[in-house]
Amino acid sequence: MTERVDCHSHSAYSGHGSGSVADMVHRAEELGLATFAQTEHLVLPEGMDPNFETSMAPQTMERYLAELHEQRERLRKEGSALELVIGIEADWLPGRTDELAALCEPFEYVLGSVHFIDARPIDDSRDLSVWDDYGIDGLWRAYFETWLDMAAHPGPIMCFSHPDLPKKYGWRPSFDAREYNYEMAQAAARSGCMVEVNTAGLRNDANEAYPALELLRSFHDAGVECTIGSDAHGPKDVAANFDDAVELMRRAGYRKIAVPTPDGDRRYVSIDDEGRK
Ligand SMILES: [Zn+2]
Ligand SMILES: [Zn+2]
Predict the structure, then answer these.
(1) Dist. CA 49 → ligand 1 center (Å)
(2) Ligand 1 being an ion, which residues bring their Cβ within 5 A of it?
(3) pLDDT tens digit sequence for 81-125
(4) Does domain 5-275 have CATH number 3.20.20.140?
């Protein structure tokens, strides 16, 4: 059986999730995962999230780190087979590379995400007004351009999350979004970062994982390695839809899952035919 991993997850510390860090790690153990990365939302620039509903507060970051180190110590004492990776999901914003490097320094694994256009959320159901101003096509293009900017200046980022996030609400562009696939794949390959199959899309109106098969195929063909994350926002979704993610990776041509390790490196889990039950 393929080793199972989950390299993207949130807890109540996100301000919009549930469960403690300990609850999340216990759930990963219960499921028998080989690797679990907790990747809470990094603190945002002042004023962007005044009530800390989409990201951690600066003082919370320290507690978050301390709790993850406590969990690691507990796992070690108990001789657990679970490898815990101390991660963070960083919002890439234009010009934020240096600040990100400093903020992400204590973390072993850094996801890079574009959730904001002009510092306004694109995937927060409480305020989607940026979609009204840009229009669906305009928003998609602005997203892709910002994403390409991130891939060209990744700073501390090690993996690009949910590369086609704007499909979250099912709002699709009238142009063929695949026109960006090649450019995105080339940019990701040049960055040396990996991408993830993020299964949250299977649980919202996107109705498919991020990224779409053809975009994932472009990443594969460009030599970009790929990992898997549930983007769980509570214990119940840890490792959700893992088998679907493996199937999507296989269809895109991948034969191994890249998995972050606590030393900042990667290891690999085979999803070759022989590994199939
Ligand atoms: Zn995200
Ligand atoms: Zn996330």
Answers:
(1) 15
(2) 113
(3) 999 999 999 999 998 888 999 999 999 999 999 999 999 999 998
(4) yes
139 Cβ partners below 8 Å, 6+ apart?
Answer: 117, 122, 130, 131, 166, 171
Position 65: which residue type?
A: L
**Whether the predicted pLDDT of 232 surpasses 80:** yes
What's the sign of the alpha-carbon dihedral 113, 119, 125, 126?
A: positive
Q: Compute, in angstroms, the gap from residue 123 CA to the centroid of ligand 1.
A: 9
Protein residues within 5 Å, CB atom, of ion ligand 2: 89, 231
Contact 252, 219 (CB under 8 A): yes
Q: Is pLDDT above 60 for 277?
A: no
How far is the centre of ligand 2, averaged over its atoms, from the C-alpha of 211 (Å)?
14
**Sequence ranges of the domains in the chain:** 5-275
- Of all ligands present, the nearest one to the C-alpha of 13 is 2
Q: How far is the CA of 200 from the centre of ligand 2 (A)?
A: 9
Judge whether 9 and 276 are in contact, CB under 8 Å. Answer: no
